[in-house]
Amino acid sequence: MIDRLIELTLKDFRVLRRDRTITLDGDIVLIYGSNGAGKSSLLSAVELAITGNVPELARYGADFPRCLRHVRAEGITQVEVKRRDHDGQVRSSGCDIDLQSEIRHHGAILEESQRTLFSERCYLSQVRLSRLIDAYQATERGGADAPIVQFVKRLLAIESLESLCEALHDIEDVRRTRKAFPDVSFLEDEERKVALSKVDLAEEIKDLANKRKERASVLQALLAPFDQSTNLGEADPQAVTQLIERLTQQADALRANALVTVEQDLQRIRQLSILFQGDSTDARLEGLTEQLRLHEQSRQELSNKLQPTMDAVKSTLSKMNASITASQHSSFAGEWKQLELLIQTLTSQLQSTLDVRRDESAKKVAILSERTAKEAQLKEIQDTISQLAANVPQWAETLASIASVIVDEVCPVCRRDFTETHQGPLRDFVGQRAAQIGENANRLQDSETQRNKLLSELGDLGRTLATLSTREETGPSVIAIEADLSQIQKAVALLAAGNADLEAWIGASNRVLQLETEVKLFQTRINQMADARTALAEIAARMKISLAKGRSTVEGLRTVEQACVNMLESISKRITELGSLRDGLRDFANILRDVDKLDSKWLTLNQQINASGEARKSVDAVISKAKVVLKTAVAAKRKLLDRVFDETLNQLWTELFERLVRNELFKPRLSEARSTRDHIRATLQAVADGIETPFENVGAVQSLGNQNTSALSLFLALNLLEAPRHKVLILDDPVQSMDDVHVSQFAALVRELVNQADRQVFIAVHERALFEYLAFELGPTTRERQLVTIELERTNDADDCVERVERREWQPNTVNLEVAARAS
Amino acid sequence: MDSIVAAIVETLESRGDYALLTSPMKIADMTFSFDAMLLGVEKNGDLVIVQSLTEDGGVMVRRRILALVTLLDRQNAMKPVTLVLVVRGTVPTRLDELEQVCRVILVTPSTSLDSALRPLLRLKLPLADKQRLSAETVLMGDLGSLANDPFVLQLISASQSGPEAVKDVLTKEFELAVNPLIPPGKS
Q: A100, A605, A807, B120: which has the fewest C-beta neighbours closer than 10 Å?
């Protein structure tokens, strides 16, 4: 708690430049300065040095420290206040503001709550006074935004409680909480969701458990023939999967071994059964063998009969250098047929050779004849040529000479007119003759050509003739050929005669072959039947069927076939059953997997339920605590309000107001301030003596000067109301609207504040006359009192202010006033 | 002594720090006589003159007061002077002349002495038992053991920054509570 401010040191603070140290060590510190001379700067420096802040400037923004530095400051701005605290200790505190406008505190800056108290209750800045006056003039009354309410809140420094109340308001109501805090709503949704999911999942698990039980029961019965060891009621999906694999192996084994074997047996039995259809006795084999013998005999006889003919023919053919080789036939009939073909070929060849021979003979005769004719023709041509050739040159020469001299119709020889003896012109005549000569020459040439041609043809004929003659001489003669043909005709006749026998031989031979085949087949069949009986016995033995003795093989086959069919059906049925069982087990495994999944889901769901339960606990705990905080904050607000705004305040306020104002009908008071859950409600009133109903609008009934006084007196009342108090009162130009009488009253009150309330009072004024009056009025009247006056004035360059500080102390009194002796 | 004057004297003596001076009073060889003169005791050096208004309309009173004040100034007495003027009839004119040199308080028979003499009475200060309590102190005290709860401390700390900061704390606490319910990757 501050008892007294002693000294202020500052450098380059706001309008106050330079280093300066100003004493504040007086009961009253009276500061004078014209507007802008630095009064408020000085008071702000005091506030900053004590509290580390200037709230009225700080509300302009975070960079307000820049405004605290002198505009031309080059170094660090400094403020420091030396003070004496309630404990008698002298302490210093202050701030440095560097070039970056960073504020650094040092010394014994007041703690947080005390700072607010100092700023709100001890320092009446002009802004704060204006705000108070605004509260008087406001038409809005009582509401949360009413200036008086704002004032009350600031005064009580309950913004933090207000913040708590406002922020935690929603917590009281579930719907508002849900709306204001999505996470709470989310949690409720989650709780609902998991609760519903739990019900659904429980139902699902129950259904699936029933299904599992039923299916296990059914499948256990189906499984019994194949597996006795597995208990499906307790099996897990892996065990069921392994069981399915075992059953699959069983089915595969059945299919691969038993089924295939029985199918093969059945097929074998059926094949064997075919062998036993029809006659299959030995008698039948003997009959066939006899028939074979007879036909073989017949075939041999016919061979013997035809052999001479065939030998004769072969002999004939060998003479003609034609024979068949053994490879060309495979049987008697084949040889016979080969001979026939050979004869046919030979006949054809001989006939052809004969025809050629005959043609060549005819051709030779014709050539000879033609040669003779051509030779005659040649002789004739040669004669003609000889004849023509002898005259031609001469004619030609004559005609050529005549022609060159023929000019007109006069004969160049005789000089006679040609027309006299001949018809037509001479030139034509000569031309005709020349043409005749030319024609003869042409004929000669043609004859020569013909002769040459004939000579060539004769050459050709001679060569052809020579060729023909050569062939005739080297080849067989026509007679020889015709003789051979005759021999062949005989052989043909021989073969033709034996053809009937040959047909019989072929028939017999074919039958022999057929019978041989038949006998072979029969023998094979008899062997097969023997094998079949053996196989039947084996199959029967394998199938553990005893075949009754004396029963036929066919019956045995039927018995075994039926047994195979039955066995086959049985195995197929077993395989089918295994298939169905596996399908069922697969479904069952799926059910088990579903059960596992549901179990897993159930586990997850329970984890979610636990998590949401934990979250619910946490949220409820938060809500519960927040509710307690809210309730406590509301109560604290009310408690603080009740402590300050009670009738004591109004009484003190009235007392102070009446000291300042003379003859004022209306006195200010504060209605009972109330704190509802969320809001503070308070109104300013004016009361008049003898009037019961207070006036709610103070601004309407009080003069402006008295409103100023009301505000000032309220501030003073609040300063004096509570203890412990900082015994400092700083009033920045508090008497702006006061007349002289009020100022006089104010001075008396200040003295009273000093004397009775032990306050150190700072008063700043901007009128010199007022300053001088107050300096006189507030001068020390006793030895203990001091008055400090500080006069501030701007320098001529307006860059700085100078101060004149005077500390006035009590002077020995020259006036002795005698106090009357009182009886009692 | 006039009854009103007597009442005023009694009031000032009992409820103000004043003592009655002998009358007439002699200052620098000059004698001044008023109905009553009182001087502040201890730290209070005020001089209070109580005077009933005479029939001359206060002319004599004004002259004497002006003379007294002038004399005191000359003597550098440093004694603020208050004139309590008891008026039974018409309020005198030219009071403003007196008000230039001293405080003037008019008292009529109908005047409440309490109100009229208020500036001269001792300031009635309330009992000093009211300890100034900060909001936080009250809140923390009333919260009891909960005042040590980290979440509550966060709320109270955030309340210094306004309601939104408090809501942020609350929101974060709820968020922290329900965070385990939010699947990874979703927020």
A: A100
